[in-house]
Amino acid sequence: MYFQPEQKRFLSSFNPVLLGFFAFLLIVFRSTSEGILPYVFRQWDVLFPFAIYFGQRRSWVEGILMMLLLSHYYSLASSAPFGVFSFYYLIFFVIARLLSVVIYASSWFSILGLMFVMAVLGRLVLPIIAGGFGHAWPVLALRNWSLMGIFLNTFLGLLLYWSLGIIDKLTYKAPRINIELGEDSL
Q1: What's the confidence (pLDDT) of residue 186?
Q2: Three-class SS of 105-169
């Protein structure tokens, strides 16, 4: 299918709306399926891959704005104190952004490794952040370190990361690495 340059720019500018709607649907699914899905799915962090993807593939401004919006959606659907998830996902955005200088996750193995390391790190960071908001749970609790939860976040994170890449390709969104290196992205 051939598009004119104006049409490609329009689709590219429509990308954040599409990603926001996709995240909104996932948040609604995650928050309304508590009683239907097995217990292990309660440890699924739906915005985790978004934070990593935006850190790897978006500019600072676009990534921060998208993470603030999506974490606000998530906060509205949760019972956590306001600001916990915004702070949590912004930390992961910054970590993924800093790691993008060394590791640009483009192959399935690098994405999987990045998701695993960040999922383990998330098990340390979230209880500490929640403690700062007055709702702490122990970092070393057995429920916090469930291997099924870590592997679920890793593998579902990989699938969501790929899905976000597909949405970017469909909307002709140029990856940040191409823009910074001056390569032709379309």
Answers
A1: 46
A2: CCCHHHHHHHHHHHHHHHHHHHHHHHHHCCCCCCCCCCCCCCHHHHHHHHHHHHHHHHHHHHHHH
